Amino acid sequence: MPLPRLIPCLDVAHGRVVKGVSFVGLRDVGDPVELAAFYSDGGADELVFLDIAATPDDASTMTSVVAKVADVLEIPFTVGGGVRSVDDASRIIESGADRVSLNSAALADPSLITAIADRFGSQAVVVAIDAGDGVVHSHGGRVATTIEIVPWAVEAAARGAGEILLTSIRRDGQRTGFDLELTVSVRSAISIPVIASGGAGSAQHVADALRVADAALIASIVHENPAGLAGLRREIESLGIRLRPMKERV
Amino acid sequence: MSDVVVVDYGAGNTRSVRAALAHLGASSEVSSDPEAVLAAKFVVLPGVGSARSAMEHLRETGVDDALRGRFEEGRPILGICLGMQLALAASEEDGGVTGLGLLAGRVKRLEVGRVPRLGWAMVDPWGDAYYFAHSFFADSPDTVATSEGISAALQHGSFLGVQFHPEKSGAAGLNFLERCLCLA
Q1: How many CB atoms neighbour CB A59 within 10 A?
Q2: Do A247 and B165 touch (CB under 8 A)?
Q3: How many CB atoms lie within 10 A of CB A216?
Q4: ipTM, 2 decimals?
Q5: What pLDDT does A111 receive?
Q6: CB–CB of B148 and A191 under 8 A?
Q7: Is the alpha carbon torsion for A52, A58, A63, A66 positive or negative?
Q8: B138-152: b or e for each residue (b if 16 or more CB lie within 10 Å)?
Q9: Helix, strand, coil fractions of chain A, as percent rounded to 5
Q10: Domain ranges of chain A
Q11: Which of A45, A247, A248 to mutate to test the interface with B (most CBs of B within 10 A)?
């Protein structure tokens, strides 16, 4: 198995990073390009950009953000929010993103997963599942569907998803630890990798998640102290999790 | 003329490869012109898309013969991920695809572990971690480095192929690309 990944998630609206990024060491906390470079230098294994506004008018704004990020970033990154068609996915991947993340659009039309995977490969398709009270939620977690979580993960994998981004709605933002039971129940039912999301409040929480998942998504724990990412990595490693060794340029 | 020609298959992400080259001070152009591929100091065959459509694109544009010509002249080509896999004789992907035949062996579907195999993994004997994202692997006697027992780098003559993405592998990837460019 590849080494477990630490993935900071940046919420973007109208081309700017929003929500909870503190000021330390950054000239412009709203600039996705600067923040991406900062997290990359600090030891992020990958990044996720989530376009939380994602109105049709924002599409070209997001594309230009993706291109600017791709020009400075030498680690992989995923873009989610507003990916509703193969054309949307093409636009984002051709601008330099490695992967797109589908959520509500895949629930509305699961064949979209296959269509994007056929064009760009399964590794380019992440299906995000917002899990709450035993069912999948859509529209940013606001709308409960009748779809059960594990069967949906199984279907998404069968249709060509290359990874599941599994968020516990109840834990999200609570900083009380990941929902490990949920993560295990989904991951044991499928053979594609799983990113655990929702609840990271400490190095111990992240280490616990990385014992049962392939990657952990982190947000407020890094955004309140972006310079602390390198320290967080060391703390996680001291808890017995082997992360990728950081390398210097020669 | 640019230092590097990045081969265009008509699909996928060439931007990240060009950004990494620019970071190293190398100018690059994206092209599917056989003349440009033959004349370039260094050629990168990047890695996104499906094997069948990529091979069809190389044949339609005549870039397949240009790559063979370069190879016969001993001029350097770097294949990344799918770009490496296309250089083998054949692939199991998309129901079976004939490759360029610059490297010996076949491309097979990964059957162990979580697939796609995603993330950073150590490459032996080099001793650094690089980023991998693949569902197929090279089963080849031209393998020169491995990752968890899976072929990670292959070389025959002037063709060097890697399963990982050096353009997405941080400092380790840039160091690797710089060595490739220096050797060219």
Answers
A1: 18
A2: no
A3: 28
A4: 0.94
A5: 98
A6: no
A7: negative
A8: bebebbbbbbeebbb
A9: 40, 20, 40
A10: 5-238
A11: A247
Chain B, window 119-148: residues with a beta carbon less than 8 angstroms from a chain A beta carbon: 119-122, 128-129, 131-135, 148
Residue pLDDT, tens place only, B14-65:
899 999 999 999 999 999 999 999 999 999 999 877 889 899 999 999 999 9
User: Is A214 known to be catalytic?
Assistant: no
In 3D space, the residue among B81, B85, B82 whose CA is nearest the CA of residue B103 turns out to be: B85
Cα separation, A130 vs A135, whole angstroms:
8
A28 classed as catalytic: no
Sorted by where each starts, the structural domains of chain B and their CATH numbers stand as: 4-183 (3.40.50.880)
User: Which residue in chain B is spatially nearest to A124 when comparing CA positions?
Assistant: B133
Alpha-carbon gap: A38 to the closest alpha carbon of chain B (Å): 13
Secondary structure string (H, E, C) spanning B62-120: CHHHHHHHHHHCCCCEEEECHHHHCCEEEECHHHCEECCCCEEEEEEECCCCCCCEEEE
Cα separation, A142 vs A180, in Å, equals 22
Q: pLDDT (tens digit, 9 = 90+) per residue, A175-232?
A: 999 999 999 999 999 999 999 999 999 999 999 999 999 999 999 888 888 889 999 9
Q: Is A75 on the interface with B (CB under 8 A)?
A: yes
CATH topology of domain A5-238: TIM Barrel (3.20.20)
CB contact under 8 A, B20 and A74: yes
User: What's the gap in Å between the CA of B121 and the closest CA on chain A?
Assistant: 5
pLDDT for A44 beyond 80: yes
Residue pair A194/A157 in contact by the 8 Å Cβ criterion: no
Average pLDDT for residues A62-74, to the nearest whole number? 93
Q: What's the average model confidence in pLDDT over B142-170?
A: 97
| Minimal C-alpha gap between A143 and chain B (Å) | 30
B13 pLDDT more than 90: no
